[in-house]
Amino acid sequence: MSATLDDWLVRLESQHPVAIDLGLERVAAVAERLQLTAAPLATRVVTVAGTNGKGSTVAMLERLARAHGLSTASYTSPHLLRYNERLCFDGTPTDDDTLVAAFERVEQARLDGDPISLTYFEAGTLAALVAIADVHPELAILEVGLGGRLDAVNVIDSDIAVVTTIARDHADFLGDDLEGIGFEKAGILRAGRPAVLGSRSLPQSVSTRIDALGVRAHWLGRDFDHTDAALDAEPDDGDEGRWTWAGVDGTGRQRVLVGLPDPGLPLDNAAVALQVLALCDVTPEAGSVRTALASVALPGRLQWLGNWCLDVAHNPHAAAYVASRLARRERPARRIALLGMLADKDAAAVAAALAPVIDAWLPVGLEGARGRDGASLAALLADEGYATLPPAATPTAGVAWLTAQASADDEILVCGSFLTVAEALAALETT
């Protein structure tokens, strides 16, 4: 009996001694056996690194590319509800059979000669690359997992590299020095190939890497940007848009689009996606851009289900963005944060970033080796002086309690981890 996708995922979770083992030697060796580096995966390959904004950038770039007629593949992590979400072709999650076939080929390759041990993420990345290479789309967009320089995705030489933001996260692996983190993220850059930098402030280590490699860099705020409204032009097609994008194409020619709709995701990332598209020898067309931005959807990023808002923000930088978006809304009778965080995350700083827009907190526990229980999170919040409700053992239990106890006038934010949002989303979809 052949193994199912679930069988493979269970097997991969336990086949390597540690869950995260940064380094390219093992994954590069298996990639060579699979001939993944012998020819391009796609007509163009884009890699996206950064602390926050990677998922938003990938989602908008993928949707923009399809709106302009390109075939696409996207690889992201982690997933929310189903592993298949990680690999999409033309916006649709791939099927189990494709993933199983790819895992079988990766397994065969890693055992072809001296066996090579792979982590869950490394095996999943290689399987995604195998499936993408088979399809050979016009645009492949690969989200870097942790860091950049030593991440499995970096085994591929991309045509365009993107760095969104750089902030402190994953300190156990990347440290808490921004210059060092910048060095790791900039490790996805390639000599002589363009890069798009999606933050107005990046560590000097990124610029140093750019200069050393002779990278043609496009900086947010310098070479491309967005504004809240067009000052000297009217939206065409009669569309009442909110913002304007200005950038350059691959020849250096300036491009401007006005009257663009709010995608519900950070405009910095939308501007990055448009800049990358313009570097792919695609002229962004106003109507297609509006269609794409108005229809893009990214589960778990400011996702609204009635009066529930779900966002995977799990570090202070991301939490501050969520707070800024909520601050623009009319203040509800009460806004409650259902917060669940892993033990290695800076819960105090995340809570501080959200505190201006939160009236009460419901701490919930997360299971697993990195999990943090609801009681310890409640104690941390109470020590900071926040109004805290009795903790719940799990996000599911927290959702059940709030569903029964919260007022219809209350607004509920679910955040702190992909695990928190995934479990809460599943619970909400069954109520």
Give a brief outline of the structure:
The chain has helices at 5-14, 25-33, 54-67, 96-110, 120-135, 171-174, 178-185, 204-213, 267-279, 286-295, 316-327, 347-354, 374-383, 395-405, 418-429, and strands at residues 44-49, 72-75, 87-89, 92-93, 139-143, 160-163, 195-197, 217-219, 225-227, 243-248, 254-260, 303-305, 308-310, 334-339, 360-363, 410-415.
Looking at this protein, list some descriptive labels:
single chain; 431 residues; alpha/beta; UDP-N-acetylmuramoyl-L-alanine:D-glutamate ligase; Protein-Tyrosine Phosphatase, Chain A; eight-stranded mixed beta sheet; five-stranded mixed beta sheet; 15 helices; 38% helix
Oligomeric state of the chains in view: single chain
Strand content: 15-25%
Fold-level CATH name of the largest domain:
UDP-N-acetylmuramoyl-L-alanine:D-glutamate ligase
Low-confidence stretches: 230-240
Structural class: alpha/beta
Which CATH architecture of the largest domain is right?
Answer: 3-Layer(aba) Sandwich
CATH class of the largest domain: Alpha Beta
